[in-house]
Design a protein that fits this description.
The chain has 273 residues and is of the alpha+beta class. 27% of the residues lie in helices and 33% in strands.
């Protein structure tokens, strides 16, 4: 028996991993700023300040906004997720086995991607204390007021990742879940998604948040507040290990995340009782 995997198998496996990673691998990456094809050990994100408009006299010079520019460097990190596929498994035609292997690799890399992002989010110093309560309407109002006071755009790019307990807290808020307030088209679970836009935020349930001493850290943020660099997107290497009589399938990526603008993100703590 040949110890090489057919080109068709390799291509199909790679395709399965990419599809699984995009579908269920990461929830947070597409909600923040991204730079792809990063060359080198880090990537630089620009942070722009606010400018002031002015008038000009006839034939006079156009006034400059004098916008401040600062930079934030995000280091790239390499990650791997390997799995052995027995030689005899290649003779089997059970497509579910291959899909499971692809999904396992995609999920591992996706969880690592989200972990990079939440770790970077945790660097924010803007917080709302749990106050021995879950995710309440008062906390949503407070976050809305804080971001508005920081001139964070209310342009449809504000997100709020919450744990599943916080999602049920939201469901208990009548203004969030009742058609009397949001209308039939604004109800949660539209299209089967655990996500809903309310109060200027796109709320979505996420299982990767940190919990300590029965307190969840949720994050509300604008897309531009966070940066994510991609040096190498999800890729695969398949090699033969004669001692194990199996193929080693390695999924790998090079990525990194960083807090760009602390004014655009708030850590909202919630009691998980």
């Amino acid at each position: 028996m040949s110890t090489s995997i057919s080109t068709a198998f390799i291509r199909q496996f790679e395709s399965d991993v990419h599809v699984a990673y995009q579908r269920m691998g990461t929830k947070l990456r597409n909600t923040i700023r991204r730079k792809v094809a990063v060359q080198g050990e880090d990537v630089r994100f620009q942070k722009y300040g606010t400018g002031t408009a002015g008038t000009k006299s006839r034939h006079g010079d156009v006034p400059l906004m004098n916008v401040t520019h600062t930079t934030v460097d995000c280091p790239m990190n390499d990650f791997y997720a390997g799995e052995y596929v027995d030689r005899l498994d290649l003779l089997k035609t059970n497509i579910d086995e291959r899909n499971l292997a692809a999904q396992a690799g995609a999920s591992a890399l996706g969880r690592k991607t989200d972990s990079l992002i939440t770790t970077a989010m945790d660097a924010t110093t803007s917080t709302i204390a749990h106050g021995s309560a879950g995710l309440t309407k008062a906390k949503v109002h407070s976050a809305f007021e804080t971001l508005g006071g920081n001139d964070v755009p209310d342009d449809g790019n504000r997100f709020w990742c919450v744990g599943h307990k916080q999602w049920t807290d939201l469901m208990d808020i009548e203004e969030f879940s009742s058609a009397d307030y949001v209308g039939a088209d604004g109800l949660p679970y539209q299209g089967g998604m655990i996500a809903k836009r309310w109060h200027g935020f796109m709320f979505f349930a996420f299982s990767g948040l940190d919990v300590a001493a029965n307190v969840f850290k949720t994050f509300c943020y604008h897309t531009t507040a966070m940066g994510h660099g991609i040096g190498a997107d999800v890729a695969q290497d398949i090699s033969w290990d004669g001692r194990k009589q199996a193929h080693l399938v390695v999924n790998y990526m090079s990525q990194g995340s960083i807090l760009v603008d602390a004014n655009g993100i708030i850590e909202v703590s919630c009691e998980n009782a």
